[in-house]
Amino acid sequence: MFQKEYDIIVVGAGHAGCEATAAAAKMGSRVLLITMNMATIAQMSCNPAMGGIAKGQIVREIDALGGLSGIITDKSMIQFRMLNRSKGPAMWSPRAQSDRMRFAEEWRLALEKIDNIDFWQDIVQAVCVEDQRIVGVKTGLGLTIRSKAVILTNGTFLNGLIHIGHKQFQGGRTAERSATGLTGQLIELGFESGRMKTGTPPRVDGRSLDYTLMEEQAGDEEPGKFSFSDATTPLTEQRSCYITYTNDKVHDILQAGLDTSPLLNHHITGKGPRYCPSIEDKIIRFAEKPRHQIFVEPEGWHTVEVYVNGFSSSLAEDIQYKALQAIPGFAHAKMFRPGYAIEYDYFPATQLKTTLETKLIENLYFAGQINGTTGYEEAACQGLMAGINAHRKIRGLDSFILSRSEAYIGVLIDDLVTKESDEPYRMFTSRAEFRILLRQDNADLRLTPRGFELGLASEARMQAVARKQAYIQRTMDAIKEHKIHPREVNEGFQKRYMPLLKEPQTVCQLLQRPELTLELVRNLYPALEEVLSIAEDAVPASYVEQVEILAKYEVYLQKEKELVEKFQKLEHMAIPASLDYASIVALSAEGREKLQQIQPLTIGQASKISGVSPSDIAILMVYLGR
Q1: Of 602, 148, 85, 103, which Cα lies nearest the Cα of 380?
Q2: Domains in the chain, start-ordered, CATH in brackets?
Q3: pTM of the model
Q4: How far is CA 573 from the centre of its chain?
Q5: 289-301, pLDDT tens digit by residue?
């Protein structure tokens, strides 16, 4: 049995719940993790992957602070890819294909190793409140468990309703019951709630697929990893994913089955994620497209189960199956289970403080999909921040808040608590005004000192960051001072058909040429190795990469700072009521839609609308002549 009273109770053991539990317990709180099913702790409800565009940055930030998502991902991944390598470093985003079963196992084992954590399998039906302060929870077994703080991380389980064609049934996930009662009580306490929708694709038997008809998508030749610590190592072996496409026949089958769509029949009232539409939604919204990409993703090292990414659907199961078999490579596919849509309750995060504590009830925190977000990574970072702040609040310590200029986590939470949104929130690089600064490669330099101060990041990690920072500073000073003369490199430039050097330049200036890297400059100018001490066997490649990025981005960082100052000055700049946003073609589609709908009065108001990116604001300011 568990204790009579805890410092913190965490409700729900998804990505948010696991990070919240681990963080609070590692910092010294006595934590009870309550989950409806101990066998599904850290279950990957949707795709078996972590990271991706902007999401990979979040996982790196969680790791830098001392969270566990990065380490767990490294230990359970079957493939690693750095996305957007063809673009600038601010856009590079790590992504890992995970072994679904190992991911959940690694999380459970990690939690079980933390002494301050107790577990209890039960359903929480109500929170206990006295004088507008949380004092515990009531469970389905009739137990009242007291605590100083409660963190709700209910995911999609609050009044979850699953849709497959005309069929509807209660559930928070396939084959798992939904959580009832809690929403009603929170509404009685004064909270505003809403409904959202998400979905998942069918799972199929990989043995029944013909991979020769698909494009292989292998991992990186030199795979990286998420964690900055030495607790994990890069993969030496990887599993490939595959790419195939829908076609006219697939679309015709789906079109013929649209009468079974709960979305089109208005059985679903919740708003779904804009950037992860169902396949039936795609063929309607993008009717001009002859095909849609399908990613065929293995669920693990040894299982034959395959995740059909890009084919999320809530159509009747027979329609899903017929359409699947018309996809190249799927002619003989055997389906393990159909895709489905799920509706669930959420509570708009504008009801929260920046610490993720609710404004109505003291010491009650919300984290994850209950706040209207979508994605494992978005949930995990909220859990981490809620766990940190709950621990500090009950001890009378200052709040821990990350600003928009410090982390993607700061951007996400600021967006959630300040901007109203009626659709699931997903992180993108375009949401961050300071994305040149908030790169995935420097998350340790930005955040590990903060994590160390909190007691989450170890001293060994802090020492590693200090060594890295010292090298970078020393090397940046050297490349800004050391000049190279034309006679020393022009012969090499000429052989490579590069523009010749006309006058002496510092190494830093040279690196601002897009075609030059530190390695290439070293090949052209061997003396650089001695000047900078960048022998491969002496200095980690990540240190050298960091110097190169800082050198190339130096001018852009300065411009970014100036742009921030301009934004602050133009915060109250008026927007004409007659402005026709539809005529401004440079705006993003979402930005145009939201601006036209809300009709903001000022640039400041426009910048706080969810879906209106910093790029949209810059375009709007140019259009207005400022």
Answers
A1: 103
A2: 5-47+102-196+344-427 (3.50.50.60), 203-341 (2.40.30.260), 459-555 (1.10.10.1800), 570-623 (1.10.150.570)
A3: 0.90
A4: 32
A5: 999 999 999 999 9
